[in-house]
Specification:
alpha+beta, five-stranded mixed beta sheet
Length: 174
């Protein structure tokens, strides 16, 4: 079984939704990069996730969403847009928080569980996880996952500890 087949089986997918989204971005030359848990997987031991968190260049976001709306369900939230498709448990979460936009220009191409895609550099992935873990509006279970992802990144590259705010250093016992 290939990594892609594994991901699609885990996602209960009849359609390779992740590849479909990546193909739309490539075909339409929409600059983007992966952030979030799958981005952590590019730098640390992989953990299964059914979410692809991406940031798309702001001036192409509406174009991307109009294409996705033709074949997917699109729901807008204050700092993100969630996209899902019938026939797959996999979801795409598009970050609309402008703090993430600069990550796109510094992204590097990586292969994550069989998919080649631009991924935010490790310091930017960590920064996104720091923002998420400190966001009190997020569910506590999500913030705990963010803390685990921070630890996964630091275990891979211990020098990243210096980028943690003191509140997180204390919480994580550094």
């Amino acid at each position: 079984m290939t990594e892609k087949e594994f991901m699609n089986r885990i996602g209960n997918s009849k359609v390779d939704f992740l590849q479909l989204v990546l193909d739309i971005l490539k075909k339409n030359k929409i600059p983007f990069c992966v952030v979030g848990g799958l981005a952590v997987n590019a730098y640390a031991e992989p953990v299964v996730s059914l979410d692809l968190d991406v940031v798309v260049i702001a001036d192409k976001l509406n174009q991307f969403l109009s294409i996705l709306k033709k074949q997917s369900t699109v729901k807008k939230y204050p700092n993100s847009v969630n996209v899902s498709m019938k026939g797959s448990d996999f979801r795409v979460q598009i970050q609309t928080d402008p703090r993430y936009f600069p990550f796109i220009k510094k992204a590097v191409t990586k292969t994550i569980l069989g998919y080649r895609m631009p991924v935010a550099k490790i310091e930017d992935v960590l920064q996104g996880k720091i923002w998420s873990s400190l966001d009190k509006t997020r569910r506590p279970s999500k913030r705990q996952k963010d803390l685990a992802d921070i630890l996964r990144l630091i275990e891979t590259k211990p020098k990243l500890t210096s980028l943690l705010p003191s509140t997180l250093k204390k919480q994580l016992r550094f």
